[in-house]
Structure formats: C-alpha cells, structure tokens
Amino acid sequence: MTAFAQLKGQVPASANGQRTEFTISLKSVNHRFLDLHMRMPAESDALEMKVRKLLKEDIARGHVEYTLAFGAASGGEAVSLNRPLVAGYVEAFRAAAKDLSVNSEPDLNVALRLPGALGSTSVEWNDATEAAVLDSSRLAIAKLNEMREHEGQSIETELRERMSRLRSAVNEIGKLRDAVQRAHFEKIQSRMNEMLATKVEPERLLQEAALLSERSDIQEEIVRMNTHVDHLLGLLGGGEVGKKIDFLLQEMNREANTLLSKTSGVVGEALRLTELGLAMKSEIEKAREQAQNIE
C-alpha cells in the first residue's frame, strides 16, 4: 500500500558534548512481495540488519524505502570537511604545477567535489546510538502502518462494492439460464437432425447430444462464482490476505471466461449474457488492481 512516514530523533550527547539529530523516512508502494530498499550511512551495516528485521516483523508486503540521515542539532555543524583529503589534493596540485612549470593555483570548488571531501555530521556508533535509531524506527513503522491501515479500509470498502455488483451480475445470469438452455436446445436439435439425415449410429447420436448438453449448462459456473465471492468477503479484514484474494480473483476470472465461452453464439434474449459477462470481467480486473495493494 502507498504510505509515507517521517520521524526525527536525537542521539545521546557524545563525549565532547555534541548532539546529533537524525531523520528516518519510510515510504511504501505496491508490490507483490516485501521488497526492502535501505539508504543508510556506509558504516551502519550492523544497524541495517537490525532495522531490516524490524521491517520484516511488521510489514509483509510492498516496496518499502527506508532512509536514515544524520545532521547536527540546532546550532551545530551540519557538514564536516575532510581536511586531510582536501589538504592532500591542494598539496599534490601545487607539486604537479611546480614539476610541470605551470603557473596555476588549485580550485577549491573542484577540491570540494572530490568523493569524501564533504560529509554529514560524524556519528559515534555505539549501543546508545543504535538504540535511539531502533526506537525511532519502531515508531516510524507504526506511523507507516497506521497510514496503510487507513488506505486498507478504503480498499476494503471498494472491494465490497465491486463484489456486490459482481454478485448482482451473477444473479441476473442465473435468471437467464433458461434462455441459454433453450437456445442451446435448438442448436442440439439442429445438430441431431443433421446427424439423422446422414444415418449416424444411435450411440454416436447420444454421445453428441450429451456432450452438447453438458457444455451448455452454466449452473456450475454460477455456483462457483457465488462461492468465490462469499469466500473473498469473508477474508476482508482478516490480516494478511492479499495473496489469497488475488488467487480468488484469478479463479473468478476463469469462471467468467467459461461463462462467456458457453454463451457465445447464443441469440435472442440471452445476448444479455455477453454484456453481463464483460461487466463481470471488468469488475474482477479492477478488483485485482486493488488487491495488489492489500497486505
């Protein structure tokens, strides 16, 4: 589900009295599985593993981006200068200029673009720092899940509405079942007359009639569709159900396709079945799009 949460925290004061703040940002978007992307300082590998564990415990599905950024507390130095690196660059530049007899001075703008020349506030990595980040991470995850839950409630409402329209279409199809059978009976009768004219054996005639009759009955698809709708509605609000709902909607799509195939070529009043079948497929596809958002 799409959601965003941001939280600010503070690392306990270091030995020199410097206080460092940090910001945790969490963003999630739709994904079939849990896909974690971490943006953290390079020296925080051990902490990253602990944060990943927290995320996996509380989030089951979605593309989740976690960002941790440090900065000095109000009034502190927000950016640090890697003096040895910059000084080394300046010294090397002047030495090269002297060796090559070139009258030139180093450009500070170029020096500051060197990788590692500028950095964020240095952080003292210890148990207190990790504890502060982990505590804030838990709060940020809770905020993210709260927003995801609100979106989930909206999706649940939409899915219930779509299932209601789908059930109405199925019920109307059930009322047209007799019309479908009459149309298929006419086709069967016509087919039998053709076969009788060619003096087909009685056993072959009965087999053909039974096969055509079986293919024309849509009662089984109607029952299955209603069962799937009941099952889906029963899953809503029941925890991690996204994958189950997606599977049920795939099954519903198969039943809708079967209904359309069994009613193709039917004329008269039963043409309404094609419209209802297409409406059913539209509702199912839209429901499947929303199901990708459900954890």
Descriptive report:
With 295 residues, the chain is α+β, with helices and mostly antiparallel strands. The chain has 3 domains: 3-78 and 118-146, 2-Layer Sandwich (Ribosomal Protein S5, domain 2), CATH 3.30.230; 86-112, no CATH class; 152-291, no CATH class. 61% of the residues lie in helices and 14% in strands. It is built from 9 helices and 6 strands, in the order βββαββααβαααααα. The protein has helices at 45-58, 83-99, 108-112, 127-175, 177-197, 202-216, 219-235, 242-263, 272-291; strands spanning 3-11, 20-29, 34-39, 62-72, 79-81, 118-120. The strands form 2 sheets. The chain has a 4-stranded mixed sheet, covered by helices on one side. α1 packs parallel to α4 (127-175), α4 runs antiparallel to α7 (219-235) and α7 (219-235) packs antiparallel against α8 (242-263). The longest helix has 49 residues, at 127-175. The relative contact order is 0.12. The mean pLDDT is 81.
